Amino acid sequence: MIKILIADDEQIVVDSVKFIIDNNCEDVEVVGFAKSGREAIEKAHMLKPDVVFMDIRMPGIDGIEAIKRIKESHNDIEFVIITAYDYFNYAKEAINLDVVDYLLKPLNKNKVIDTVKKVERLIEKKRQDMEKELEMKEKMTAILPYIENEMIYSLSSSNFKQEDIDFYGNIFNIKLDMGFAVVVLLDKDSTDSDIFMGNVKVHENLMYLKEYIKSLKDCLATILLDRIIVYVPTVAYDDLYIIKNDSISFCEMILKEMRNLEIGVRIGIGRPYETAYFSKSYDEALFAIKTGSDAITHFDDIKLSEAKELGLNYDTAELVENIISNSIDGALINVNSIFQKLQHNYKDSIELIKSKVFSLLIEVMTKINTYCDVTSVLEENLIIDILKTDEIDSLKDMFSKFISNVITKLHRNREKYYTGLIAKAIDYINKNYHKEVKLYDVAQMLSISYHYFSKMFKEETKCNFVDYITRVRIEKAKEFLQDETISVKEVCFKVGYNDPNYFSRIFRKETGMTPTDYKNRVSKGGVAFEN
Question: Domain named HTH araC/xylS-type: which ranges (predicted)?
Answer without folding.
Answer: 423-521
